[in-house]
Amino acid sequence: MELLIDLETIMADLDILAAYTEAPAPAVTRLIYGEAEVRARAYVRARCLASGLEVREDGLGNLFARWPGREPQLPAVASGSHLDTAPQAGRFAGAVGVVGALEAVRALQRAGFQPRRSLELLVFAGDAPTRFGLGCLAGRALAGLVQAEQLRALQDATGRTLEDWRQAAGLAEPLEQVALAPGHYAAFIELYIEQGPLLATEGEAIGVVRAMAAATTLQLWLHGQHSHAGSTLMLERRDALLAGAEIALAVEAAALATNRPHTVATTSLFQIEPGLVNMIPGHAALTLEVREIAAEPRDHVLRSIDRAVASICARRHVTYDFQMHSSDAPVTCDPGVVEQIVRVCEDLGLPRQFMVSRTYHNSLFMAHLAPTAMIFIPCRYGDSSLTDEQVEPEHILQGIAVLAHSLARLSE
């Protein structure tokens, strides 16, 4: 089947979406439920209706646009991404997957294709953690991993709740009806720009994602002793900052010791008290994250960190408290969906590379509901979610072509 991908319309849609922003161009800032995000979602909704799709919206703001198949009672095949962004982001992350999924459906319609299973565009309401401190909010809620009462209680930095925000955005459907049952979709594919340099560096057109990393995040509080920097002798000090600095290095060492390229560990926040020039810090708070595509290597690193914290704190006479903030399960992408994507690349003559996703996407949680995979396209210089992210139109076209053919095959 030969498909005509309308690149001019795709780029025009991306330009229009980029104009819905809370920040001056070229930056794009669209926080969930903000005016820019609501307007962007309304624009996509109108484009879906103009394409003859059946549109609905749930209580969280997730948008569903369905092209009914010949056997509409069967679980649909879905694709999509998000429209919200982090502050000062670029125009492509998320938006390419939304516009791309819609164009994939339109291309199949133009070709006269009639899917057996319905095809559905899914626009996630919430990817970036900026507003409520929880990333991939939509995917977690759709998978039933966050309950309605937990959603209502989420707050932004000012104390305003998600419930207040969604009502102001005109969302009235019950949050209890957001979660979907496992098997709701026959398959799900997310088209995304690579958030790294591999495809651009190696000249590959398509990244076929076979695994998605997930993180365990820990909060660590260190309790030493505030004391004067001049009058406290070196051997008498209980310095929480130095204990934290040693721990940060131990976190790095634990990840490096695995010799696994997919193991990464980060000390992302480090706060001290009292923070005075002439005082030894008596308290420190650290946020630690370990990310992997497999649970066992990640757990091994966490055990190493636990031992290091105990040893360092004992030696420095500092006490500590640990708390697990969150822990998500890594995902292996569905082999059947991956195989279909690979075959499409071969049929289209597009060079492809197997990859892992090391950053969070809603697909990580959609895998709880359906056989799931991702398609990556190159991002120039390997920068994404940044104001100056650059994606070549040719790569967008190729990614949508692979997506459209993959959706067609999975729908039969």
Automatic annotation (TrEMBL):
Record note on cofactor: Binds 2 Zn(2+) ions per subunit.
Pfam families the record matches: Peptidase_M20
Highest rank taxon of the organism: Bacteria
Subunit comment: Homodimer.
Lineage: Bacteria, Bacillati, Chloroflexota, Chloroflexia, Chloroflexales
Family membership: Belongs to the peptidase M20 family.
Protein known as: Zn-dependent hydrolase
PANTHER family from the UniProt entry: ALLANTOATE DEIMINASE-RELATED (PTHR32494)
Organism field: Candidatus Viridilinea mediisalina
